[in-house]
Design brief:
721 residues; 24 helices; alpha+beta; seven-stranded mixed beta sheet; Phosphoribosyl-aminoimidazole Synthetase, Chain A, domain 2; 24% strand; 60s Ribosomal Protein L30, Chain: A
Length: 721
């Protein structure tokens, strides 16, 4: 781990001398892109981060939302991309552990996980299959051992991730507002390291994640131990209940170097610590190794000497090591000793605040003509095309993934994985709806509109459960920011997210920026991932079984927008075309209309139209209810379009609503009141999924055949060479 030459000169200038070896390692860790956000930090300020439900405290690693009645929700999202690309089981598992500790550090109990996974083409690439299988197992094993349900997520495959892995994990916490840790410190307070022993695993991890992945540096991958993490959770929550914690932070990127400096800087204090007091896994560890090790399952706590006695007893009960490694000073310095020898003495302001970069940007050349449309030959029978889409890895059921997760432990899960969004029961009688979404195909064609589309899709998903969006998490994943064209796509995506968040009054409560995501073939596609949290005051939409004679309404217009669609790229191997664009006014009207009709209890289910378009969305309703449906393309709201565009366009702001025929008039009255574009497009019954044009079937597929293909294809791809 090392500083660039200009950074070294800057450090020398700021401290007025030659830095010690330990100081060099401390600063290199904290000034890495992974820890400092030096390329992105100044731009992230454009996001709206305040709102009536947002609670802010010094030093929090997770966002906090007030959900009423004295309760709060905490949320955070992290990635472990580089480690997972090298060692997918351990990389994914430690990614879960890290984001859980972010939730814990606010003083809340982690109650749910969501994962966003992206890999190369598993139909052709055996290495992609290996990465995928092991990452899923790592997430499952860690979460299941902790007893924290993985309730949702998404999986996507694209050649841009060849020989790479994108592993995003979001965590949700819940607790009483009065139990939130109010980070503070007094002179003389003790600095305590609690949890697993410090080892040589993960050394250089932050620097490893701040460079392009050119070699397999397995020493930078941390070793997971979920059993210690479970004990830590329970010990911390007991200590919280007894008011023993003044301040707390988990040890993640940069290890002690970053967590000590960031804690001190946030609280406007100094910290003096002794590396010889740190409990280690190996007896011969060098001081510098101790400071930058990213060994997992560790927490940094500030308390006083009286409370430490009680904290120590709790740790003994749970068989967790805890060591007093230092104390609080008021000189605003990070003073590191080895016994009586000083090995680092540097201002926390210098360490914790890398100089922010002002990087150049320019529109990528490939975007000049990429939205040029291409006409595909019109088919007389789309049935085989439909079957091929249902078998594609991006559309096929992800039951093979989420069946490995315990998604019911904790008995909060009301809506389980496999639906639009997941819903958790809260102790105050309300419900939390959560979903994460991304769409690199569309973000590649139009970074701004693609990012907005990800955001809106996540909102649509939580709305389909009856929830009003109250907050968002963003995870911005791009290639090398020093490439002006890549940095331009980052800025455009961020601007799009900002515009949507402000217009819809959805505050960003936290997130992550992950850069230098590159493969031997080049940068990944722009991959912003958006998590949306929605609150349901009374009862979520409890999906009812669809019966013969039930009807289908479509809300929202279908447009000539095949760019970035699965149909365009998977069926026709065409990258380009017009990317779907969100009309803010229509989106807002449609959301509000759906939320109102859910409250009336006139409908059986609501389902958004997204990947695969109308044809896939209708098929999903049929396959999950084992019933056929006949849809007339002439009745689909929108402009007059070719059949394939009506079937497979992925236009935003569209919902499918199922209901009993007797409720049609009442529904129409409500929808007209909201001035939305809608129409009854189909009726359920029979045993086939059928779409007609000019009263003639153009797609006719048995539900049984469709379901078998959809349910089994991903598993067969993964399990068979």
């Amino acid at each position: 781990m090392s500083l660039e030459s200009h950074e070294l000169e800057e450090l020398k200038s700021k401290i007025g001398r030659e830095p010690t070896s330990t100081e060099l390692q401390i600063v290199a860790a904290e000034w890495s892109e992974h820890c400092s956000y030096k390329s992105s930090k100044k731009h992230l300020k454009m996001l709206p981060m305040d709102g009536p439900l947002v609670i802010k405290e010094k030093g929090y690693d997770s966002g906090v939302l007030d959900v009423g009645d004295g309760y709060v929700i905490t949320a955070h999202i992290e990635s472990h991309n580089h480690p997972s690309a090298v060692e997918p089981y351990g990389g994914a598992a430690t990614g879960v552990g890290g984001v859980i500790r972010d939730i814990l550090s606010a003083g809340t109990r982690p109650i749910a996980l969501l994962d966003g996974l992206r890999f190369g083409d598993i139909e052709k690439d055996q290495h992609a299959k290996w990465l995928f299988k092991n990452a899923v197992t790592g997430i499952a094993d860690y979460g299941n051992c902790l007893g924290i349900p993985t309730v949702g997520g998404e999986v996507e495959f694209d050649e841009c991730y060849t020989n790479y892995a994108m592993v995003d994990v979001a965590a949700i916490g819940f607790g009483k507002k009065e139990n939130l840790i109010k980070n503070h410190a007094k002179k003389g307070d003790l600095v305590v390291l609690l949890g697993g022993a410090t080892g040589r695993d993960g050394i250089g991890g932050s620097q490893f994640a701040s460079d392009s992945l050119e070699s397999e540096d397995r020493s930078a991958v941390q070793i997971p131990d979920p059993f210690i993490e479970k004990l830590i959770i329970e010990a911390i929550l007991e200590a919280r209940n007894e008011k023993l914690i003044h301040a707390m932070k988990d040890l993640g990127g940069g290890g002690l170097s970053c967590e000590v400096s960031e804690t001190a800087d946030a609280l406007n204090i100094g910290i003096e610590m002794d590396v010889e007091k740190v409990h280690t896994r190996e007896s011969d560890m060098h001081s510098d190794e101790i400071m930058i090790s990213e060994s997992q399952e560790r927490m940094l706590i500030i308390t006083n000497s009286e409370k430490f006695i009680k904290l120590q007893k709790i740790c003994e009960k749970f068989r967790i090591e805890c060591s007093v490694i230092g104390h609080v000073t008021f000189d605003n310095k990070m003073h590191v000793k080895k016994g009586k020898t000083s090995i680092a003495d540097i201002s926390t302001d210098i360490v914790a605040n890398a100089t922010l970069l002002d990087l150049p940007s320019k529109m990528p050349a490939y975007l000049e003509n990429i939205e040029t449309t291409k006409s595909f030959s019109q088919l007389s029978d789309y049935s085989e095309t439909m079957l091929k889409l249902l078998a594609s890895p991006n559309i096929a059921s992800k039951i093979w993934v989420y069946s490995q997760y315990d998604h019911e432990v904790g008995i909060r899960t009301v809506v389980k994985p496999g639906y639009d969004a997941s819903v958790l029961r809260l102790d105050n009688g309300k419900f939390l709806s959560i979903k994460i979404d991304g769409n690199p195909k569309q973000c590649y064609i139009n970074p701004r509109e693609g990012a907005i589309g990800c955001f809106e899709e996540a909102c649509r998903n939580v709305v389909c459960t009856g929830a009003k969006p109250i907050g968002m998490l963003d995870h911005l994943q791009f290639g090398n920011p020093k490439d002006p064209e890549i940095f331009w796509t980052f800025l455009e995506s961020l601007k799009g997210l900002t515009d949507f968040a402000k217009d819809f009054e959805i505050p960003c409560i936290g997130g992550k920026v992950s850069l230098y995501n590159e493969t031997p073939k080049g940068s990944i596609k722009p991959t912003p991932v958006i998590g949306v949290l929605g609150l349901i005051d009374k009862t979520p939409l409890r999906i009812q079984k669809i019966n013969s004679g039930d009807c289908l309404i479509m809300i929202g217009n279908t447009k000539d927008e095949l760019g970035g669609s699965e149909y365009s790229e998977y069926i026709h191997k065409f990258i380009g075309g017009k990317c779907p664009v969100v009309d803010f006014s229509d989106s807002k009207k449609n959301m509000n209309a759906v939320l109102e009709i859910i409250k009336t209890e006139l409908i059986k289910s609501a389902h958004d139209c997204s990947k695969g378009g109308l044809a896939v969305a209708v098929s999903e309703l049929c396959m999950t209810n084992l019933i056929g449906c006949t849809v007339s393309l002439e009745n689909v709201p929108g402009d007059k379009l070719d059949n394939d565009k009506i079937l497979f366009s992925e236009s935003h702001s569209r919902y499918l609503v199922t209901f009993e025929k007797k409720n049609l008039q009442n529904l129409e009255e409500l929808l007209k009141k909201h001035n939305v574009s809608f129409k009854t497009i189909g009726e359920f019954g029979g045993e086939s999924i059928q779409f007609t044009a000019d009263s003639k079937p153009i797609l006719d597929l048995s539900v049984d055949k469709a379901q078998k293909t959809w349910l089994n294809s991903l598993k067969e791809m993964v399990m068979h060479a």
